[in-house]
Queue: 2 jobs
Job 1
Amino acid sequence: MLLVRGIGVVYGGAATGLMGILADGMLRGGGDVTGIIPRALTYREIAHEGIRDLRVVGSMHERKLLMAELADGFIALPGGTGTLEEILEVFTWTKLGIHAKPCGVLNAGGFYGLLDDLLNSFVGHGFLKEKHKKLLVIEEDPETLVEKLVQSEQDLKSYRL
């Protein structure tokens, strides 16, 4: 679906996990893939060797900054604590107006249902405005998620706090 839309991928540069699988599929289809990996992780032999544009940086902070600079939007697939931390950071940056890039999570099999519940709890307790919660698109269907993020990108151009 990303290939058909001409959407490239900027990700953490590993050959493992769901993002490694996504990178493999993009590469097989001739898609544009940029990987950004901290030097320390290359020593653990998890760097994706098939990526032509694999950038090695000094730290996780450098990795996240460069990924945020290069990407036009952000999608989190089901993953671990690093994935959660990364999507919440860029979501917060959107909320604060640091950038105007759409953020979403693929709620495959209800994986991010508890995150949605938590954000709803933040809203209910007054720690997050509903309009800000809506800046994180949570969808179960990949095509619907991408479509909503494309629309969200257009909406964010006029977004004000």
Job 2
Amino acid sequence: MLPKNLLKYNPKLFARGKRGLIYTFKKNKKTIAIKIKNPESKAENRIQNEINFLKILNKHKIGPRIIEIGEDYFCYEFIKGETLKDFLKNKKNYKKVLENIMHQCEIMDELKINKEEMHKPLKNIIIKNKIPVIIDFERCHFTSRPKNVNQFKEFLRRINLE
């Protein structure tokens, strides 16, 4: 359920995922996204989990920047761009973008954070002005053996870009 204090901005549904719903609204000429739990999801504490990991990752310039945190939601700067899937269709000037994504994966591995979805990141990375922003950290967890770099390398091998 959307928080009452944000209803005045008239949020519109932007995306529906298995575990979360994303709404967007304008505030001070900026587009803001709000993520809440999908009421149909049985997953527990996914919003709080994502908040916890974004707090850590934002310090390393990874993920969308959190703007506001509530009990069952968080707001972040909306990343207007194209998905990695659409970006790679162009097949030009992608090397620096992929290097940047790999660098972010290396940082997450150093932090012992596993995102769990770097082997299929086509929808979980938004490219804005040739800068990739990884999104969707609800499944993140700490592990002694993170696999972000290996998963992303496997993805690159599969699509034949490495």
